[in-house]
Hints:
Number of strands: 2
Strand content: 5-15%
Amino acid sequence: MYVTIGIIALIIAVCSIASIFRDTDNRFLKMLDFTRIQLFLTSVLCLIILTITAKKWKWHVYLFIAAISTGLMVNGAYLIHYTPLVPVEVPLATDLKSTDEQFTLLVANVKMSNKNSQELIKLIEMKNPDLILAMEVNKWWDGQLKAIENK
């Protein structure tokens, strides 16, 4: 079990360290950027298991722990920004004040099979947005939305 955990730990550590090179055209290196949480949690688990199962602390145990710790620091440096430990940089929408320089956008996914266009038209008239983005429209929806085209 110790050898298996050591091999897994080494693979996880190499993947974690290689994920630094995410701004590349190589899709395999870019793919490592999406598995940071899994790499971080697996590294923690491997670190715990290795420290418990290591009977004799030889040089290779220290090498495994150093590699895993480096991988933990790399992934932790990216993941910490998604925790409450780092303050929010973007203000909440409730904190913003309306100005004349803003525009309103209404995004609606209408779903082609939906035939209840009157509800969307009522919503558009009520909100009076500057720009409307309707997704999943077909010719029928295009015809229904012609009613608001000149408003």
